[in-house]
Amino acid sequence: MSHTASAIDVISARALLGSSPDVLLLDVRTPGEYETAHIEGSVNLPLDQFDAQLPHVTVAAGTTVVIACQSGNRARQCQTKLDAAGLRGSRVLTGGLNAWLAAGGPVVRGRQRWSLERQVRLVAGGIVLVSIIASVWLPAARYVAGFIGAGLVFAALTDTCAMGMALSRIPYNRRGGAAASAPGRMSAGAHR
Questions:
Q1: Within 10 Å of residue 86's Cβ, how many Cβ atoms?
Q2: How far is the C-alpha of 178 from the C-alpha of 192, rounded, in Å?
Q3: 3-state secondary structure of 89
Q4: Rounded to whole angstroms, how far apart are CA atoms 3 and 83?
Q5: pLDDT (0 to 100) of residue 180
Q6: Which residues form the Rhodanese domain (predicted)?
Q7: Do strands 108-109 and 37-38 pair parallel, antiparallel, or not at all (unpaired)?
Q8: Mean of the per-residue pLDDT values for the chain?
Q9: Partner residues linked to 91 by β-bridges
Q10: What's the sign of the alpha-carbon dihedral 181, 183, 185, 188?
Q11: What's the CA gap between 70 and 48, in Å, rounded?
């Protein structure tokens, strides 16, 4: 199922958020990413906690739900879940927070943290480096590097990342943002 028609660009999103009181702006990044920078009034509901909070989203949603993440992939996954739950008409912020920032959109900034994407690059690169060095003494260690490479290829082909999903669950990425634990905060018009 394609969601091209249900995407929204930054300019249109800013206009919508400024003119409509019935918009719920969901940020589905990790609490750590949300703490670093987020669109004012957005509600942090990490994708890995989304299923448990879905009843609150469907009750709180106004006429429009705009979903944002860092680049758009997690937002599209969230949109698929909303569609499956019968909440149609959600819009994915094209390009996510990256596009919002590039267009000069205002954000609330907090303590700087590494993005999930950067963490994946560090962990994957570190594992490959260590396994190649270890293969000098233990030749079979090179297969670990091959496994990581295969995982990265799979991640690119499927537009999902198992390592990113695993890293999103570590304490570093869970601190700091927990609107998901406060469903009462999930209301349309919170972006005012």
A1: 7
A2: 20
A3: coil
A4: 10
A5: 39
A6: 19-109
A7: antiparallel
A8: 83
A9: 66
A10: positive
A11: 15
Using 70 as the pLDDT threshold, list the residues of the chain that sit under it.
Answer: 1-5, 58-63, 175-192
- Which string of b and e fits 38-60 if b means at least 16 CB within 10 Å? bbeebbbbbbbbbeebbebbeeb
Distance of CA 164 to the CA centre of its chain: 10
> DSSP characters for 54-86?
HHHHHHH--SEEEEE-SSSHHHHHHHHHHHHTT
Give the distance from CA 42 to its chain's centroid.
13
Taking only the tens place, the pLDDT of each residue in 119-152 is 889 999 999 999 999 999 999 999 999 999 999 9
Q: Which pTM does this prediction carry?
A: 0.67
State whether residue 37 is helix, strand or coil: strand
Please say whether the beta carbons of 59 and 53 come within 8 A.
no
3-class secondary structure, 168: coil
CA-CA distance, 54 to 86, in Å (whole number)? 11
Phi-psi region for residue 95, left (φ > 0), alpha (ψ -120 to 50) or beta? left
User: What's residue 87's pLDDT?
Assistant: 82
Q: Over the Cα atoms of the chain, what is R_g?
A: 18
Burial group, residue 133, by CB count within 10 angstroms (0-12, 13-18, 19+)? exposed
Separation CA 167–CA 126 (nearest Å): 14
